[in-house]
Amino acid sequence: MNSKKETELEQLLTRVQTLLGQSDYLRAFDLTRQGVATHPDHIGLRHAGVLAMARMGATERAQALFNDWNLDDIDDDEEVLALWARLLKDRASSTPPAERKEAWASAAGAYERAFAAQGGYFPAINVASLRYLAGDQESAEVWAKKALELARSEDSYFAQATVAEAYVILAAPDKAASALLEACAAPGAGVAAKSTTRRQLTRLIEDRGYDASILDPLIPPKVAHFCGHRPAAAGQNGRFPQSEIDRVASEIRAIVSRERIGYGFGSLAAGADLMIAEAILDQRGELEVVLPFDRDEFLAVSVRPNGAEWVDRFEQVLSRASKVHFVTEDAYLGHDELFNYTSHLAIGHARLHAQRLGAELCQVAVWDGQPPRPQDLAGTAFDIAKGKQIGLQQHIIASRSEAASPEDVAFEPSTGERQRRVMVFGDLKGFSKLSDQQLPIYVETVLGACAEVFDQFDESLMFRNTWGDGLFLVFDDLAAAADCAFTLREKISALPYAEVGLPQSLGLRLGLHYGPVFETRDPVLDRMNYFGFHVSRAARVEPITPEGEVYVTDAAAAALAVDCPDAYRCDYVGEVPLAKGYGAFPMYSLIRILPA
Q1: Helix residue ranges, H only, 404-553
Q2: What is the pLDDT of residues 194-208, one digit of tens each?
Q3: Torsion angle defined by CA atoms of residues 113, 114, 117 and 122, in that order, rounded to the nearest 10 degrees
Q4: Phi and psi at residue 35, in whole multiples of 5°?
Q5: How far apart are CA 484 and CA 457, in angstroms?
Q6: CB atoms inside a 10 Å sphere around CB 449
Q7: Rg, the chain, Cα only
Q8: Would you place residue 137 in the very low, low, confident or very high pLDDT band (cuts 50, 70, 90)?
Q9: Measured between alpha carbons, how far is residue 250 from residues 246, 253, 370 in Å?
Q10: What are 130's strand-pairing partners?
Q11: Which of 541, 543, 525 is nearest to 465 (CA)?
Q12: What residues contact residue 501 under an 8 Å CB cut-off, 6+ apart?
C-alpha cells in the first residue's frame, strides 16, 4: 500500500473512531462499509462496522455482517473474538427468562476464548459479569479479581470502568462508585463509552440491590425536540413580541444548561427555533435540523421576513448542524401541512437518537399559551400537544410575560392540500416466470390472499392497486400500514404453493415510506389516487428490499418512533442506492416487537 492510501486509510479509521465515540453509529457504519469496499481485508474496518451495527441494537443484522465479512474466520484477535462474544451477550439479554442463564453462560465461554488470545481485562470483566448473571458467583469473583488486577494500573476510561464493574461483582459498591468517578475523568470518557458502561452495569446494580445513583456520572446529556413562535414585526405585539426576546433567550440558556441538553432536533425558523438551536450549540451540543422544503424557499418564507439578522443567524447555525433532513426537496406551494409533518419527523429523529444513547428525551418550546387559529394547519400549539401526547418532559417558556400555558392541550390540524400518508409498494418475485397455465392459479391463490389481508385493514387503507406482480397501497395510519405489511408477509409466505401448482420460489418484498402527498381523482382510473415526490420515493424502496423483509425510509422510521414505539423497531441497514438512479438514502429494516 502506497503512502497516500495509507494516509487515507488512517484518516478514515480516525473518522470512524470519532463517530463511534460520539454515538453517531449510522454515519460510522456507512463509512466503514465504504472503507471495506476498498479495503476488504482490513480487520479494523470490519470490526468497527459490526460494532456500530451492534451498538444500534441490530444484533441479528450485526451477527450476519460478522459472518458476511468473514470475521468468523479469525481466531487469534482478542477484539474480534470479544465482538462475537458481545453479540452473543446481546442476544442472551433478549432470550426468554427460562433460557437466559444458559445463554449468558454461553456468551461467557466466548469471552473466555477472547481472553485466551491476549489476556486483556476487557474480556475478563465480561466473563465475570456473565458468570455472575448465570448464577456462578464463585467463578464470577475469580474473574473479577483477575480483571481488577489487569485494569487498575491503566489510566483510561475503560480500565477504570472495568475496576468499577469488578467492585460491583465483589460486593464493594462504595469502591465501585469511586472508580466510576475516576473513569469519567480519565482519557476516553466520551458519551458513547459511558452509555455502554451504563447499560452493562445497570443489570448488575439492580441484581445486587445497590442504589442506582452509583451510575449517575454515566447519564448522557438529554435529547430535545425544540419549537416555538417567530418574533412579531417591530412595533407589533403578536405571539412573540420583540420586547420579550432578551428575556426568552435568557430563559432558554438557563434551561439548556440546567437540563444538560446536549442534542437538539428541530427546524430553524426565525425566533424561537434559532434561539434554542444557538443555545444548544453554545453549550457544545449537537444539532440535527429538519426543514420542510427547499432551503432557499424556507429562508424566504420562515426567516428573511424577520430581517437580515435572522438570515445571518440561520446560515451560521445551519453550517454547524451535524445533519439536515428535508421533508421534500420540492416547493412549498403554500401548504402549511409540511410544517406539521416537519415537527413529527423532528420528534421521531430525536426519539431514535435518545434510544441509541439511552438518554432522556424532552421538549423545549417558546409558546404564548394560546390555541391555534381556525385556519392553522401547523404551529407551536400542535407540537406541544404532540409532545404531551407521547409523554415528553416539557420545558415551556412563555413568549409573552402575560401568557399562560394551559394544562390540557390537544389540537388536531385541519386538512390541507397535501396529506400525510403511508405508501407501501410490494413485488412478488418469480411472477414473470409463471406460465399461462399458472396465472389463473396465481390470481386466485396469491392475489386472493392479498385481498383477504387488505380487507382486514379496510378502515385505514385508502387506496389499493395491483399490476400482477406489483402492489401499491396507501394508508392514513402508520401503525395500520406496518401491521398490514407484516400480516401480508406472513400470509404470503405460508401459502401452499406446491399443492396448488405454483413454484415455491415465489416471494414477497415490501417497501414502506411516509410523507405528504397529493390526493386527487385519477381521470384514467376514475377514482381517487395519490401523487407526488413521496410516492416516487416510496416506489424506489421496494426494488432494493431483500425478499422476505420490509424496508422503511428514515422518515418512516422516525414517524414510527413517535406513533408506535412499543410495537416496532427499525434496524439501520445503511445508505442504500434506490432504484433507477434515485440517489442513496438511509434505509431501515422494520422489525415487529413481540410481547415478552
Answers
A1: 439-442, 448-456, 478-493, 497-500, 533-539
A2: 998 999 899 999 999
A3: -140
A4: -65, -40
A5: 7
A6: 15
A7: 26
A8: very high
A9: 6, 5, 22
A10: none
A11: 525
A12: 438, 441
pLDDT in tens, 415-455: 556 788 999 999 988 888 889 999 999 999 999 999 999 99
Residue pLDDT, tens place only, 85-112:
999 999 998 888 889 999 999 999 999 9
> In the structure grid, which three cell numbers stand for residue 210, read together?
445497590
DSSP letter at 576? E
**What is the separation of C-alpha 319 from the centre of its chain, rounded to a whole number of angstroms?**
23
User: Three cell numbers at 259?
Assistant: 437540563
Residue 470: exposed, middle, or buried by beta-carbon count in 10 A (0-12, 13-18, 19+)? middle
State the SS3 of 272-320.
HHHHHHHHHHHCCCEEEEEECCCHHHHHHHHHHHHCHHHHHHHHHHHHH
CA atoms of 572 and 586, how far apart (whole Å): 8
Sequence-distant (≥ 6) Cβ neighbours of residue 101 within 8 angstroms: 133, 134, 135
- 232 and 257 in contact (C-beta within 8 Å)? no
Angle between helices 191-208 and 121-133 (to 10 degrees): 30
SS3 content of the chain, % helix, strand, coil (to 5): 55, 15, 30
